[in-house]
């Protein structure tokens, strides 16, 4: 079990032009943004190339765009910031960015068409190879929440099976490894992978594929609406996803990266954003095996840009003129408190049973969603003073598995629903 200090970072949203800044790349503006991020005491950023701009044709990855990405990474290094790069954008803040060679007259499935997948692999390999010799390069994330293209509620999904999703992930992660051997390459899906029964990207994919597990925590998914801005379930939602992921992990201490988390208004009122931020991060830090926390996002979106959902404009730790917001002050305080400090939370000895059906496909994973029995039981246990984790029903009697994770008692959702401290059974 690692005891390294937790990492603290931000998803880099350029203050000028949002991600469209790649069209008019200005290194001086980037440097100013990175100065403001480093000023918070953060140690890394997550960076988002726009796929259609970097690979406008299936056989063309633009050298100039790749050069600009390397310049950004080098500027980050000068400020003590490590860099993770998301390759396939993909989807950002309600907008889809897919190259023309996958749409309309060239419409083909981005997960299964052999030519498209070969093009994606070459693109990811090229980006990884360009950064492979940079000491501050963490590794590649295949793409940002790309699972959303594979099922509803996307208006035009590319339908696939879980087996096809797994094959696609294996192929693209191998391309990242080919480009930059030994780096921390991973994939990142939104919470539908944990909560939506028919999402082909499954909890098993998230918790078993790639170097670490990534979770993205957004309380506008029904959590804040159901429980309120200051409720236990809301302030512990990120911690819940971290611990939920461990039910499917094959390694007892697989690292988990809280790669996205934010304070979306009006679900989290602006005047409560700092308190929510502090509580969310503190609760996540009470999870063993947490690699780090990367806040969404670094800078607000400028009001000069149209058609974003209202909540997307105000998620930054800094304004789009680089002033630190209360949430940014909260993250800066936490980062300072944890600098060079070991992260060694006590084991979570109480495990909540998750029965989502077959563990590979999780056809009943909605039991884990807000309002579902696992979700609500986790919130009740936490409010009652417990520090729960989760275990699959198929492993609830596996003595070796429980011991490796430090679990000493197992609780069903029904037991957790009792009005007093739930009855438990001792782990075998």
TrEMBL record:
<dbReference type="InterPro" id="IPR017853">
    <property type="entry name" value="GH"/>
</dbReference>
<protein>
    <recommendedName>
        <fullName>Glycosyl hydrolase</fullName>
    </recommendedName>
</protein>
